[in-house]
Specification:
Chains A, B: Pfam families: LacI, Peripla_BP_3. Chains A, B: Keywords: DNA-binding, Transcription, Transcription regulation. Chains A, B: GO terms for molecular function: DNA-binding transcription factor activity; transcription cis-regulatory region binding. Chains A, B: This is LacI family transcriptional regulator. 2 copies of one chain form a homodimer. Chain A has 322 residues and is of the alpha/beta class. The first copy, chain A, folds into 3 domains: 53 residues, Orthogonal Bundle (434 Repressor (Amino-terminal Domain)), CATH 1.10.260; 123 residues, Response regulator (Rossmann fold, 3-Layer(aba) Sandwich); 123 residues, Rossmann fold (3-Layer(aba) Sandwich), CATH 3.40.50. Chain A is built from 13 helices and 12 strands. In chain A, strand 3, helix 7 and strand 4 form a beta-alpha-beta unit. In chain A, helix 1 crosses helix 2 and helix 8 runs parallel beside helix 9. The longest helix of chain A is centred in the C-terminal third of the chain and has 16 residues.
Chain lengths: 322, 322
């Protein structure tokens, strides 16, 4: 005979609803009680039936994370942190990839919305209007994009871009290029503003694919623009750009300084090691899950949490040639 | 009044079941008919209700892909190819990451099995016995591991490892190390055999984390083992190893030749550019989805599909010092 929730409640000396919450809403249960219940449940071989619970609560206990490109190493640390945090709250996380395609993004949201209790939407490529329409279908938390009236986690890339540009001007660079990302990227806009107000001659090159290939392709335009300092949309673009410049005989940092954004592992191993704006991706994943838990419980205000960024100076930046 | 499947059938001049299949099993419908039905459905604003369909068919039209580490760039091309192919068959793909942890892997399979029609299990870290037990819960296709009686997609890493080791011996290397991966990795075992039978002195160093850090950490052992050629578990380990050797004043390929496995983008941009065993990850993703569709329809034999690998020679290998 299978072990039921009643058996666990009796053996733990608590009410059935406490056992249920120990599994489905652990933050609502006293930690000691929860430990006891889980130990008893494990000892008896009790396994809560998620599908049965979904029928009674109307909850799936699944979250979705939608990312623009799972192949961009910026996302995995965010996904992993969100997943670990969600798991501690008894939520599974499913990841879906939209291939940087707004239409795929819309389809994925619509189908995922029926399978999950909430969605983390990371670096969306859809228009604000489309996202506002889709929020009727499922609670959202948006990461890396400011949309009025929606719970949002921002990494302050504008601040980081300002630090990056100031680092370049302090090194004597007077003509600086922003190698921007895809059209519709909120991050590109925030970086654009930081570069435009930096007090150096500013050149804007883009849109570019947010990948190594995007950076390789941008190298010719960077050379033609006669800049000595570059802020790239992300580390992948920066790494590709350094490769593209090198293929054309332009040295980094001797001829051109290059700064990336994200602080992915590959940047630390790149030759030269990449100077970059470090983004708190793991923290953003955890905060976003907390906000999504609140949104699912219908207690979310349209909070905006903004996380600080910082500049990590390594080898890809140096003094401007005089 | 919402548009129903009957409206679409009437307007397209086909039976209701044909409309249903045009959405849920497009490969069973004549392509011209399917195009007409989809055009009519789009014109009328009809949207098939996945949840309702799941109730009648007992199918969720979701697949899961379980990977050991979403941060390993080997997996995204496999995931993206599987996802694109599944989407063309009207299946969504959800990705779950197990953090290289067998216990998390088991939990994820058990919870995911209730939400999806089938699971692609990539590079599992569970024991064969545990996987055989779990297959009762949901149809599996296993990628990158040989388990008797289960539909399996293998990339022939043994063949690739043999090509790699032959390349090293042809360059005059007489003492070769395998810097292996995590304990329980099927791939490590296949590589071990290839290196052991190569006719050179073989040194086996491991287990190692399958990451850049794993390679950096292994550098000291590689130097102590006095080998001149190394086959690394994957490109991340190879890139980390090159970095770790460089920190200790050992040059690649002048002092030690290093070969990776996978052919990730970062290896092409590494200095030196990485010689590597190219793994057909995207093809494996597509084939695995086809096998999973068969498994869901209960027509799957325990087929094993083995895909060929190849050696890509770049800059991280050279003649052995004499």
């Amino acid at each position: 005979m299978p072990v039921t929730i009643r058996d666990v409640a009796r053996a733990s000396g608590v009410h059935v609803s406490t056992v249920s919450r120990a599994f489905s809403a652990p933050h609502l249960v006293n930690p000691d009680t929860r430990s006891r219940v889980l130990a008893v449940a494990e000892g008896l071989g009790y396994r809560p039936n998620r599908a049965a619970r979904a029928l009674t609560t109307g909850r799936t206990h699944n979250f979705g994370i939608i990312v623009a490109d799972i192949a961009n190493p910026f996302f995995p640390p965010l996904i992993k942190a969100a997943q670990a945090h969600a798991r501690s709250r008894d939520y599974n996380v499913f990841v879906a990839d939209t291939d940087e395609d707004p239409q795929v993004e819309e389809e994925v949201i619509q189908t995922l919305s029926k399978q999950v209790d909430g969605v983390l939407l990371c670096s969306p490529r859809l228009t604000n209007k489309a996202i506002e329409r889709l929020r009727e279908e499922v609670p959202f938390v948006v990461v890396n994009r400011r949309i009025r009236g929606m719970p949002t986690v921002l990494m302050d890339v504008g601040q980081g871009a300002s630090l990056a540009v100031r680092h370049l001007t302090e090194l004597g660079h007077r003509r600086i290029a922003l190698v921007s990302g895809p059209a519709g990227s909120w991050t590109s806009k925030a970086m654009h503003e930081a570069v435009a107000t930096a007090g150096a001659d500013a050149v804007f090159l883009g849109p570019n694919a947010p990948t190594e290939q995007g950076g390789i392709t941008a190298a010719a335009d960077v050379i033609a623009s006669r800049v000595t300092g570059v802020l790239a949309y992300n580390d992948l673009v920066a790494i590709g750009l350094i490769e593209g410049l090198s293929e054309r005989g332009v040295r980094v940092p001797e001829d051109v300084s290059v700064i990336g954004v994200d602080d992915i592992v590959a940047g630390r191993l790149n030759r030269p090691k990449l100077t970059t704006v470090s983004m708190p991706a793991a923290a953003a994943g955890r905060v976003a899950v907390d906000m999504l838990l609140q949104a699912v419980d219908d207690v979310a205000a349209a909070t905006v949490t903004t996380l600080e960024t910082s500049l990590v100076v390594r080898e890809s930046t140096g003094r401007a040639r005089t």
